[in-house]
Specification:
alpha/beta, ten-stranded mixed β-sheet, eight-stranded parallel β-barrel, 11 helices, 29% helix, elongated, binds pyridoxal-5'-phosphate
């Protein structure tokens, strides 16, 4: 059946982003692609094979379920790391499948030791240390205990990494706090040698840190939003455009995703008519209206009612009235020749115009992430060149 809308994922855009990010981080750090939130709405089953085709060999997810999705989607040779939740009962599964996981409390480490002994294979762990985010992370005392236990059982625990997460690297308002975190992290990495560890991957940087804290890239970077072609914040984009410390030449970030649908129906409404439910929109002139079979069930925020735009025939057309569950109405009065079946772009470019995720409201940090992950997984994803 023909889908009512399609999300295209551009291979050339992804390749361009990966090349750009490599130029920004330099040749040394390992690149780990963060694909939590179903690959930020791109869908793990489509995005992971595409990323592997573009050379990505490391993925990070939030949960064990997502790790299983990556495992199923991957061609086989990639490493997978769980940054968040996994039930102790599933640690055996992770060990058997070579899935690494963050350890941020001692009970998980002990459960991993037990599971490893049962299976006869070591657990791959990344010790997450507390540096000031106060979300998850081992405090120094517990970190020392963890190192001692891991050092005592090298056949059961391989410490692959030591890591932490910043408290908002996309905003300079957090500059001081992040500096404290960097110092705390250095203090913790300094303890590794004391317990006989070396050659362990130190990793702290998310997308924003890659741009705003170039010295934080260390041995590995965990990049989410930027690989998909979005700046972590407007502030980060502007700071970079003004010549951030590592500004390379050439294209920067390009959106991987393009969401398109088709005009479902056309009609005219007289001046004074109310368009759609209730009194949300009143026609101030005779209007030509196009309905589009995409609504909040698919991930268009309802807050786009009366304010959002789509592209038809290369022209921005305003959403009029409320966004409904499965459809919305747009104003095509000034776009000549619109016909049923015409392409409608909800996100991405059409001709030389573009609808940005940021246009779905203010350009705020959370909004880009939130809009992306709320795109319905029922919408087919199609890889294009
Ligand atoms: C989500 C996440 C990242 C990636 O963040 P982006 O801003 O999307 O690059 C990195 N590390 C951790 C621990 C995360 O949860």
């Amino acid at each position: 059946m023909k889908p009512s809308s399609v999300i295209e994922l551009s291979e050339s855009a992804l390749r361009s982003n990966l090349r750009f990010l490599r130029r920004v981080i330099g040749p040394e750090p390992k690149f780990c692609s963060v694909v939590k939130g179903d690959a930020y709405g791109h869908r793990i089953d489509v995005y992971v094979p595409l990323a592997e085709k573009c050379g990505v060999r490391r993925f990070a997810v939030f949960s064990a379920e997502e790790a299983a999705d990556v495992l199923a989607a991957s061609a086989g040779s990639s490493s997978i790391m769980i940054m968040g939740t996994i039930a102790n009962d599933d640690l055996g599964w992770a060990i058997e499948n070579d899935v690494a996981f963050f350890v941020f409390d001692l009970s998980r480490l002990d459960a991993a030791l037990r599971a490893s002994k049962r299976i006869g294979k070591p657990a791959r762990v990344h010790l997450e240390v507390e540096t000031g985010l106060y979300r998850t992370g081992l405090e120094e005392q517990a970190f020392r205990v963890a190192l001692r236990r891991a050092a005592a059982h090298p056949e059961n625990v391989v410490v692959e990494g030591i890591c932490t997460h910043f408290s908002g690297a996309e905003s300079s308002a957090n500059y001081f706090r992040i500096g404290e975190q960097q110092r705390a992290f250095e203090h913790h990495t300094g303890l590794l040698a004391e317990f006989g560890f070396d050659g362990i991957d130190r990793h702290v940087a998310c997308s924003a840190a890659v741009f705003n804290y170039p010295d934080s890239t260390l041995d590995l970077v965990r990049v989410g939003i930027a690989q998909y072609g979005y700046w972590p914040s407007e502030e980060t984009r502007l700071a970079f455009a003004r010549g951030g410390a590592r500004r390379p030449r050439g294209p920067s970030l390009t959106r991987v995703m393009r969401w398109k649908s088709r005009v479902m129906n056309l009609k005219s409404a007289p001046m004074g008519a109310f368009i759609g439910y209730g009194l949300a929109y009143q026609a101030m002139r005779r209007m030509r209206l196009a309905s589009v079979p995409v609504g909040y069930a698919h991930g268009i925020p309802r807050a786009q009612s009366n304010v959002g735009h789509v592209l038809i025939r290369g022209c921005p057309c305003r959403i009029v009235g409320t966004v409904n569950m499965n459809m919305m109405t747009v104003d095509v009065t000034d776009v000549p020749g619109v016909k049923p079946g015409d392409e409608v772009v909800l996100l991405g470019h059409q001709g030389d115009r573009e609808i940005e995720v940021g246009a779905f409201g203010e350009r705020t940090h959370n909004l880009t992430y939130e809009v992306l992950v709320r795109l319905s997984s029922d919408i087919p994803r199609e890889v294009i060149a």
